[in-house]
Amino acid sequence: MLEATSLSTSILADRLGRSEVFGDLCQADLLAIAEFGHEETFDEGQVLLVEGEPAEKLFVIERGRVALDKKVQLGRHSTPRSATIDYIIPGKIAGFSALVYPHIYSTSAVCVEPTRAIVLDGVALRRYMEQHPAAGFKILATLGSLVSNRYRQATNTLTYFLSVVSHELRSPLAAIENYQQVLLEGFAGELTSKQERMIKRCLLRVTDLRGQIGDVVDLARMRPEQIQMDFTWWNLSVVGTEAIDDVRLAAAEKDIHIRVDPPPAFEPVVGAPRRMRQVFTNLLHNAIRYSPRGSTIIFRAWYEPDAMVVEVEDEGPGIPPEDLPHIFKEFFRASNIEGEPGMGLGLSIAKKIIDAHDGQILVRNLEDVDGKTGTCFTVIIPKNLKTPEMHRQLWMEAEGNG
Amino acid sequence: MDKQPYILIVDDDPDILDNIVTVLETQPYRLATAQDGKKCMEMLKQDVPDLLILDLLMPRMDGWGVIREMRSEPRFARVPIMVLSTVIEDASRRRYELETGMAMDVQEYIQKPIAPTELIRRVEKMLQVTNHA
């Protein structure tokens, strides 16, 4: 139950002066700002502000603890969940969005303990800041460092989370996968055909899961500079074969044939081969996932004067036209593939990799001929990319000439 | 009589050790295992292996530490090393270079998991290379 208490302006001003955002202000400013506020107490579980709603109030927490929650939704149809990204303790503020354009709360705030706060009218405070630029500047400067700290903390948490996810989750999976392979290849005795089928299924699911964990980790830490650091000369004949090997089991499972249309001769190009393998593996996996049983996937490549072009074409249902513009977005899954496993990360990862190569990734639905449908993904990699060593050489030459 | 090649396998995950031993004991090799880098260094000193299969993220002393110590010690400098880890190769090599200023001198790098027949093939290949050297 809300309970507003009326405190004298001077006591309120005094308390505001002890908070992180208003600590630098002079008494006159504090007294003026105190006029826009009142003190309130909140019960445990009470919601102070809601993500996405207009930000009209700023809360200066005096007692208790408030959780900042962010809505997380994987895919369009899943239930949104909320994740706590930070806790606000006495002296700190919740709802700084009230002072910052576009004045929409960027998180929700929920009391996790009985809480007392000074609630300030954000609109009035904004107006005061406009009219008193010196005070306004101090408040915004503190706000800037607060936001930057929060961002740093979020980045640290993410990095830590990723390292834990990548090692702690992948290790047990590797052990499970290994046991299944050892069983499957008969190193622990002969299997009945039923056992063999079941272990094959286990292996496929575990491999998928490991891939998905890898996707999440990759997506979060994949920056163009990191990808470009690994640039080296590579050949599609090698990397393409590896990618096809990666999906062989999944293709066999659906009785899908992968037809390769190679160029007359392969040429080496510069790029990040491990990442490119990931692009092709993702595209092939995607094609397999949405292809009908027993169909054919075409993996073709050719060279233009200034680029290498690779295409992966399937005989799947095609992508609904309204979904085409979103297909490379994170966590996006097309609306006509309900029930297919996956998180919709493969294509956005592929796009990030191709972007780092200054290349293009395009998608189009094939013309509907005799009721036959399909989708074709095209990857274009320019031939003029440089390895870090080539960049270094160029700099040295430029230095020498300068 | 031909001496059986001696392979030392180091991994902190007992299940991975179980898997590798199950697969490699079908071959004419002599195998030993260790579960951390310190133990690995002790065992190396007792008997120099023909091949070291090495995990990277381990307690007490990690695999990068083992590589660094081995490569600075003439007795072990030429022992072929097969890294078998969940750590991605690029990231791993970069970390070693940053820490030591040198390139990571390992003869094979495999990201876990590896299919049994593939493991046998690669081990065999590495041992052949050593024999002919």
Short description:
With 402 residues, chain A is of the alpha+beta class. Chain A has helices at 9-17, 27-34, 122-131, 133-184, 193-221, 224-229, 236-253, 273-290, 346-356, 388-401, and strands spanning 3-5, 37-42, 47-49, 57-63, 66-72, 81-88, 93-94, 108-111, 115-121, 232-234, 257-261, 269-271, 296-304, 307-314, 360-365, 375-382. Chain A folds into 3 domains: 3-131, Jelly Rolls; 157-220; 225-390, Histidine kinase-like ATPase, C-terminal domain (Heat Shock Protein 90, 2-Layer Sandwich).
Could you characterize the architecture of this molecule?
The complex is a heterodimer of chains A (402) and B (133). Chain A has 402 residues and is α+β, with helices and mostly antiparallel strands. Chain A folds into three domains: 129 residues, Jelly Rolls, CATH 2.60.120.10; 64 residues; 166 residues, Histidine kinase-like ATPase, C-terminal domain (Heat Shock Protein 90), CATH 3.30.565. Helices cover 44% and strands 22% of the residues of chain A. In chain A, α3 packs across α4. The longest helix of chain A has 52 residues. The mean pLDDT of chain A is 87. Chain B has a five-stranded parallel beta sheet with strand order 2-1-3-4-5, sandwiched between helices. In chain B, α2 runs parallel beside α3. The interface between A and B is medium-sized, with 16 and 20 residues.
Taken from the alpha-carbon principal axes, the silhouette of chain A is: elongated
Mean pLDDT of chain A: 87
Number of domain units of chain B: 1
Arrangement of strands in the largest sheet of chain B: 2-1-3-4-5
Give the SSE map.
The complex is a heterodimer of chains A (402) and B (133).
Chain A: E1 3-5, H1 9-17, H2 27-34, E2 37-42, E3 47-49, E4 57-63, E5 66-72, E6 81-88, E7 93-94, E8 108-111, E9 115-121, H3 122-131, H4 133-184, H5 193-221, H6 224-229, E10 232-234, H7 236-253, E11 257-261, E12 269-271, H8 273-290, E13 296-304, E14 307-314, H9 346-356, E15 360-365, E16 375-382, H10 388-401
Parallel strand pairs in A: 11-13
Antiparallel strand pairs in A: 1-2, 2-9, 3-8, 4-7, 4-9, 5-6, 5-8, 10-12, 13-14, 14-16, 15-16
Helix pairs in contact in A: 1-2, 3-4, 4-5, 7-8, 8-9
Chain B: E1 6-10, H1 14-24, E2 30-34, H2 37-46, E3 51-54, H3 63-71, E4 81-85, H4 89-100, E5 108-111, H5 116-132
Parallel strand pairs in B: 1-2, 1-3, 3-4, 4-5
